[in-house]
From TrEMBL:
<dbReference type="InterPro" id="IPR016186">
    <property type="entry name" value="C-type_lectin-like/link_sf"/>
</dbReference>
<dbReference type="InterPro" id="IPR050111">
    <property type="entry name" value="C-type_lectin/snaclec_domain"/>
</dbReference>
<feature type="signal peptide">
    <location>
        <begin position="1"/>
        <end position="24"/>
    </location>
</feature>
<dbReference type="Pfam" id="PF00059">
    <property type="entry name" value="Lectin_C"/>
</dbReference>
<dbReference type="InterPro" id="IPR001304">
    <property type="entry name" value="C-type_lectin-like"/>
</dbReference>
<keyword id="KW-1015">Disulfide bond</keyword>
<dbReference type="InterPro" id="IPR018378">
    <property type="entry name" value="C-type_lectin_CS"/>
</dbReference>
<keyword id="KW-0732">Signal</keyword>
<feature type="domain" description="C-type lectin">
    <location>
        <begin position="41"/>
        <end position="164"/>
    </location>
</feature>
<dbReference type="InterPro" id="IPR016187">
    <property type="entry name" value="CTDL_fold"/>
</dbReference>
<protein>
    <recommendedName>
        <fullName>C-type lectin domain-containing protein</fullName>
    </recommendedName>
</protein>
């Protein structure tokens, strides 16, 4: 298997994701109802992946399925993902979302290409986060700590994850 540094991988992953969407792979998968096993919420389809993987492997898995690790753009999205995970993972443990700061510039970016660093963007960090403890916390998991919100953590840890596909109305508007 080829070896990539994380920043190079993310660039390839985001560009691959956008190419899938622009060539209709995601649109074809998600016309009307969500594919079997996926849950619909706010014009997007979500899939809980119970198998624990590193952040990179979780994103690669989502890309293989035609999507990305999930992004959260509202309190409603945040609560939905937590409920989806809780309903399928009795341990109520953390899970990967598509937020990272592994690329040059260290601003937070969703793996689907949307920004998370612009003032006014939705965020659900636990108090004191992100803190980049030890200078090695470049990926984000959700459902962590007492408040069960976002926490930055090392990308090599292994957690369950949630993937997302976009419905035609939202994906065609975003990527035209």
């Amino acid at each position: 298997m080829a070896s990539f540094k994380l920043p190079a991988f993310l660039c390839v992953a985001v560009l691959s994701s956008m190419a899938l969407v622009s060539h209709g792979a995601v649109i074809g998968l998600c016309q009307g109802a969500c594919p079997k096993g996926w849950a619909k919420h706010n014009n997007r389809c979500f899939l809980h992946v119970a198998e624990k993987k590193t952040w990179v492997d979780a994103e690669l898995n989502c890309l293989h399925l035609g999507g990305n690790l999930a992004s959260e753009h509202s309190e409603d999205d945040h609560q939905f993902l937590k409920e989806l995970h809780k309903g399928l993972d009795s341990s109520d443990s953390p899970f990967w979302i598509g937020l990272s700061a592994v690329h040059e510039g260290r601003s937070w970016l969703w793996s689907d290409g949307t920004s998370a660093s612009v003032e006014g963007d939705f965020s659900m960090w636990n108090p004191g986060e992100p803190n980049d403890a030890g200078g090695k916390e470049d990926c984000v998991h959700d459902n962590y700590g007492g408040q069960k919100h976002w926490n930055d953590i090392g990308c090599d840890k292994q957690y369950a994850s949630i993937c997302v596909l976009r419905h035609p109305a939202s994906s065609s508007r975003r990527y035209q």
